[in-house]
């Protein structure tokens, strides 16, 4: 991807520091090299004019592959995150609000914005889709705030219905991850027979389109002989998966029919190893490559790493103002 020159140059000036950007540290040649070492990148300043050199480096980083649609290249995001480290605050800008406002001017013209998360770290997101560009690690240690949000989502998954799992959890998550044309049961499209709870498409960087179907179950997915309670038997979705892969969906955006290329089997609980092995054993080799699994743990990791907003029913209740308490009786 590319930034316009009028947007890339101010960011380069912030990286090296100059009199026009007083909220950023001034860096001589030696400290410019140190800055990129801190970013774990092998760029050494060659003694030339600082701003053009930094602009060239940033342009090179923008040429890296994008991790996903509407995300900045990973190394470029790392540079911005290092630049906005709160420990680099300058006099008169202790919380880096002024530095953030300055950086968001060129970023905003490119459709992005920076912000500080609840953990105090700097992140960049796409304004229109809210897709976060900062590197995502699904398995990093959690902050106390993230652990609390994870617990709230677990409690919601324990009590939500299957429709709520789809509408309130899965659809927002897949939209955030860059999937398009996400359509679920009950929407006006109505082209969702043959065992598909949801279908959607994903556009590759080459402009090719892949279609996905989702078969979602609320509880645990196992290989027991019969369904028990909220547990679903994997054999019950076997025929649904076959029908999903063998029938077409109509994409009204392209006015064409297309086969589902891949299927997600999503469970709000655990998908046991026995269930995965059983389904893999009855599917032929080509079909096995089309099936992907996503259980509760994976959903929780994605919601935490991408800092997705919790469903409204999962969010903690706000304290009621004293004056609005139902039992507040005037003396």
The total of helices stands at: 11
Question: Roughly what fraction of the amino acids lie in strands?
Answer: 15-25%
Helix-and-strand structural type:
alpha/beta
Based on CA atoms alone, the radius of gyration comes out at 24 Å
What is the terminal-to-terminal distance?
66 Å
Helix content: 25-40%
Task: Return residue spans where pLDDT drops below 50 for at least 5 consecutive residues.
Answer: 187-193, 320-331
Counted beta strands: 11
CATH level-3 fold name of the largest domain: Trna Endonuclease, Chain: A, domain 1
Q: Which architecture of the largest domain would the CATH scheme give at its second level?
A: 3-Layer(aba) Sandwich
Q: What is the ordering of alpha helices and beta strands?
A: HHHHHEEHHEEEEEHEEEHHEH
Largest sheet: 5 strands, mixed
Average pLDDT works out at 84
Organism: Sphingomonas panacis
Protein name: Restriction endonuclease
Describe this structure in words.
With 331 residues, the protein is α/β, with parallel strands linked by helices. The protein folds into 2 domains: 5-126, no CATH class; 144-314, Trna Endonuclease, Chain: A, domain 1, CATH 3.40.1350. 38% of the residues lie in helices and 16% in strands. The chain contains 11 helices and 11 strands. Strands 3-4-5-10-11 form a 5-stranded mixed beta sheet, with helices on both faces. It has a two-stranded antiparallel ribbon with strand order 1-2. A hairpin with a 4-residue loop joins strand 8 (248-251) and strand 9. The chain starts with a helix and ends in a 26-residue tail after the last helix. This is Restriction endonuclease. It comes from Sphingomonas panacis.
